[in-house]
Amino acid sequence: MVKKQLIMEKALELFGKQGFNATSVQQITDDCGISKGAFYLSFKSKDELILALIDQFTEQSIADFDYIVKNTNKNQLLCEFYKTSYHYFRQHADFAKTLIKEAFAFNDEDLITKLRHFDKLLEKLILTMIERVYEETVTSSKYDLLYCIKSFMGMYNDLILFCNIELDMDTLIQSLVEKTNLIAENMTIPFMTEQHLKLLDYGMDEEITEKELINILKQKIAEIEGIEESIEKESLILLHQNLLESNLSPAIVKGLLENIRSQPNYAWIAYLLRNYYEL
């Protein structure tokens, strides 16, 4: 395992159990079996590590949602979307609780910007889902429906994270799908418009360039230089070469992206490339 990823995995466990403030760099390095010097080769500070974990946490969820929205049969899409949302938060419940309780104590502009960016990406994916599921039947109400779905996700995630009771997840998801359908089919007084959303875009509509993608892939490949060969490593190298030479078919590119998309360290680049190639 790449040392940087090992540090992130151990820190994720410690932050989830103890919180950000109560966890020291020394504890993280002890758990990893490395020196402090090795830690600081990967991260300049504990705060930088926390931001990297938040990046991974949000990027992995966006990448998963994107894949589901674009690859799931529309009749099952709402169900799979809600299921993924709640499964992800249950899987990372301890870290998510720490993030909710302590993140804004940093008062870090970069963190606030990252979370806003995540929110806008999520909104775009929910809109795409709404358009796939309901097509033209919700043309005038899709922005209100977007806010309803986001509200459902937030409210029920709180129930999952902060209520110490066993939840029947199948019933919860079925209930949310029913609620969403009822709102979509019966809304008569829409309020939200596309203009409202544009006013809240925070200037984050910039598309990533080919040059930026090449640099991101180059950095990922550099991180795994020297480790044993793997299907993920080979896929990253081929994807990097394809950006430089465009010598692979869309089907092969899609297969290479499948090889890396489920790995937390590569999910974000898979998401970026999937959108770049419109796959």
UniProtKB/TrEMBL annotation:
The keyword DNA-binding applies. One of its GO terms (molecular function) is DNA binding. Residues 1-61 form the HTH tetR-type domain. Residues 24-43 bind DNA. InterPro entries: Homeodomain-like_sf, HTH-type_Tx_Regulator, HTH_TetR. Keywords: DNA-binding, Repressor. Pfam families: TetR_N. PANTHER family: ACREF/ENVCD OPERON REPRESSOR-RELATED, ACREF_ENVCD OPERON REPRESSOR-RELATED. This is TetR family transcriptional regulator. It comes from Pseudogracilibacillus auburnensis.
